[in-house]
């Protein structure tokens, strides 16, 4: 290479120019060299110089040049286009397809020395020095297996201050590098560009095979002579390569992991792409699976969701929303179902059809939507087209209508309740979904029978029955759900989660179970307070509701216990001590008379309610005729509600603060269970009538009951009838129990 450079540079007459004139310099040097060639060949045509294929390919360069010169010499034999431009190439030469002919030796060949003609003094001197110094360096001893470049490393260490002998090699290498830089700068940018372009072209000609241009793999030389340089070069390549590969490893981005959707329309859809397999294997797997599959098409488009919503489809609700019992539950025996109240025997004829229902019309607006201020709601009347000011879209006081609509759908969820088996209370009723507070759950339906019919059934049909499904209804009638709705299975609890309330729907009374103030959760057993009236000591049952405040027996509510105790007094003597004790325990505390002062706030609240209700009434156009009567009615309700609060204060002495809402709710509750509504709008007897009855009963009572068993039986019978009547007057959905002393009654 050096000789070539010397050849080329030696013909220059001018000294090296600065870098920025490099292109021009190379051009001028080449033109000069061509003119020199012209001079030597003695021809008039300008020869073209084929650029070397690589920086180190000096031999080919010189040979090519010589060959060209030879061609020019023979130009008279065969005309050939001579390239004058430096930027054009002999493609056949570059690609190696050029067949080289044996060249003739020229006079230049004979004149050429190792270093060639030296025109640059500095370079020639340096070269001579280099050769002189290199020769002894080559004589250095080499150990077998030593890696080339080791010496270099050692010398670098020494330079860093080990204090050893300074390697002369380094100096030599430094000088050589400087020389190469110098010469390359002389060759110029243009020259390198040309070389690069040639390489690219060569690549193209060889069909993109770049194996010959690829960097050689590092190899430990099996050593001889001048491999040192090569070895050094390859060693640096190795180092570079290892460092590059480690850097590449560091930089190499991690393969991103696929994140699957956790929400959206296609969530839960079967995914048949196994990321562990490649595409081909996945396809094969899919093919195999598709044989068994029916659907192999793509998931439905997005708008299919809307269609699904419109059409509906089967799906499973979460267990806490809907959880029905598994199929195969034990069926209760002897239960005949009826979804509507059925009049039996004389009940239909005795039912006072013409019973004047209080005519009312609510004055609610669409904004309020028959809320708690709705007059109908207050009176436990269901709104309908005849008594509601607003339509069904806005009205929220139509519970039975809501229930009807719900059950029309017919699914288990819509029905919402199912019969379950309890541990020690026979069957029960449980919810299989949630219910809002005060939401209607199920209607209590059955046969409506007269008192006489009830007595008759007791004596005959239910003689040996364990469970009875009798409930005080309306107009002194009994609702017998032995044949009735599923509601008959609802058990009693002293701390119930539901309440049984009688409503008036289209002028007729109807009983239904409503959720309590806390609402109902899925799977809860539904219970209400039976307010049980046993009528006889024989019928007292142990309560197994397990509530913390359990009364211990299936007995009446504390506030009603006094009346019942009075009724049962004649019976609760002698052998009936146990029952008496039980009853005393249950009711004793709450019947103690206490003087209660009603707080002014409560009084004020009630007067407010009264004013509001009167105002509502005066607004109702349907009330013009009956306004005075209704006003009296409101007066009565308020009075009784006040009295109710007075009584309840006995129980709730700790409650000093009663909010207005609570008062309204209480008033409604009193109205609902009828305790304070006797003689009220739902046709209950007046207090006067009640007093008369009591006087009459006292008269009828024998002077000494212990004297005769017949007298005792009569007394029982009368008290039973009286109690039933009394409770039916209350109309509070009280469950009544079979009368136990059948023998006595039969007498
Ligand atoms: C209307 S039925 C209720 C359904 C009844 N468990 C069944 O299997 O048909 C009323 C009867 O259930 C029983 N019962 C209801 N609640 C009870 C309770 N808390 N403790 C004990 N027995 C109860 C009593 O025998 C009662 O007479």
Automatic annotation (TrEMBL):
Compositional bias of kind Low complexity: 26-44
Claim: Ribonucleoprotein is one of the keywords in the record: no
Superkingdom of origin: Eukaryota
Protein name: Histone-lysine N-methyltransferase
Example GO BP: methylation
Domain AWS stretches: 357-404
Annotated spans, Disordered: 1-111, 675-747
SUPFAM superfamilies in the cross-refs: SET domain
Basic residues bias spans: 719-728
């Amino acid at each position: 290479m050096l000789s070539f450079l010397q050849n080329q540079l030696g013909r220059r007459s001018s000294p090296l120019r600065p870098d920025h004139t490099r292109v021009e310099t190379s051009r001028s040097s080449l033109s000069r060299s061509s003119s020199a060639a012209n001079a030597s060949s003695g021809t008039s045509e300008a020869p073209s110089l084929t650029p070397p294929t690589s920086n180190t390919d000096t031999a080919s360069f010189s040979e090519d040049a010589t060959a060209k010169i030879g061609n020019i010499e023979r130009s008279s034999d065969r005309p050939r286009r001579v390239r004058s431009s430096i930027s054009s190439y002999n493609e056949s030469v570059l690609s190696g397809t050029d067949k080289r002919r044996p060249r003739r030796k020229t006079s230049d060949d004979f004149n050429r020395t190792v270093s060639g003609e030296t025109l640059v003094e500095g370079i020639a001197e340096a070269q001579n020095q280099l050769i002189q110094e290199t020769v002894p360096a080559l004589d250095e001893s080499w150990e077998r297996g030593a890696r080339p470049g080791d010496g270099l490393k050692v010398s670098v260490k020494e330079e860093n201050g080990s204090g050893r002998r300074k390697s002369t090699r380094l100096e030599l290498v430094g000088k050589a590098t400087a020389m190469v830089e110098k010469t390359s700068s002389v060759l110029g940018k243009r020259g390198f560009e040309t070389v690069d372009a040639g390489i690219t072209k060569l690549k193209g000609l060889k069909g993109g095979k770049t194996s010959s241009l690829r960097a050689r793999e590092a190899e430990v030389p099996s050593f001889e002579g001048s491999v040192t340089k090569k070895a050094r070069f390859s060693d640096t390549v190795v180092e570079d390569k290892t460092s590059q590969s480690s850097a590449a490893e560091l930089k190499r981005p991690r393969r991103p992991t696929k994140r699957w959707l956790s929400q959206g329309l296609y969530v839960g859809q079967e995914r048949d792409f196994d990321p562990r397999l490649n595409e081909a294997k996945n396809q094969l797997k899919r093919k195999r699976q598709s044989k068994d599959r029916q659907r192999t098409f793509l998931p439905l488009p997005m708008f299919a969701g809307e269609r699904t919503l419109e059409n509906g489809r089967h799906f499973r609700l979460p267990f806490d929303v809907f959880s029905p019992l598994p199929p195969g539950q034990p069926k209760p025996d002897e239960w005949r179902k009826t979804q509507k109240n059925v009049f039996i025997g004389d009940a239909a004829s005795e039912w006072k059809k013409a019973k004047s229902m209080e005519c009312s019309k609510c004055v609610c607006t669409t904004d309020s939507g028959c809320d708690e201020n709705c007059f109908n709601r207050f009176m436990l009347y269901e709104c309908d087209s005849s008594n509601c000011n607003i339509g069904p879209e806005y009205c929220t006081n139509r519970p039975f209508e809501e229930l009807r609509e719900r059950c029309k759908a017919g699914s288990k969820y819509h029905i919402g309740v199912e019969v379950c088996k309890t541990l020690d209370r026979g069957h029960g009723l449980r919810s299989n979904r949630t219910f809002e507070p005060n939401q209607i759950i199920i209607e209590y339906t059955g046969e409506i029978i007269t008192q006489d019919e009830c007595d008759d059934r007791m004596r005959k049909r239910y003689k040996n029955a364990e469970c009875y499904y009798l409930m005080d209804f309306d107009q002194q009638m009994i609702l017998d759900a032995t044949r009735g709705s599923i509601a008959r299975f609802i058990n009693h609890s002293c701390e119930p989660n539901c309440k049984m309330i009688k409503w008036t729907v289209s002028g007729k009374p109807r009983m239904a179970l409503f959720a309590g103030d806390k609402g109902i959760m899925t799977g809860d057993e539904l219970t209400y307070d039976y307010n049980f009236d046993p009528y006889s000591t024989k019928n007292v049952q142990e309560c197994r509701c397990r509530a913390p405040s359990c009364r211990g027996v299936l007995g009446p509510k504390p506030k009603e216990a006094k009346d019942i105790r009075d009724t049962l007094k004649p019976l609760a003597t002698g052998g009936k001590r146990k029952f008496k004790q039980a009853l005393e325990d249950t009711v004793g505390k709450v019947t103690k008379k206490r003087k209660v002062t009603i707080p002014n706030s409560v009084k004020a609240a009630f007067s407010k309610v009264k004013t509001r209700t009167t105002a509502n009434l005066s607004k109702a156009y349907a009330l013009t005729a009956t306004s005075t009567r209704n006003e009296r009615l409101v007066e009565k309700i308020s009075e009784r509600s006040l009295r109710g609060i007075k009584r309840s204060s006995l129980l709730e002495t700790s409650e000093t603060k009663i909010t207005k809402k609570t008062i309204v709710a209480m008033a409604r509750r009193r109205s609902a269970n009828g305790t304070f509504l006797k003689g009220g709008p739902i046709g209950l007897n007046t207090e006067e009538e009640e007093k008369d009855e009591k006087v009459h009963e006292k008269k009828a009572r024998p002077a000494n009951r212990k004297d005769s068993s017949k007298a005792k039986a009569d007394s029982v019978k009368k008290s039973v009838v009286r109690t039933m009547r009394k409770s039916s007057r209350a109309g509070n959905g009280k469950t009544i129990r079979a009368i136990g002393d059948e023998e006595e009654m039969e007498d």
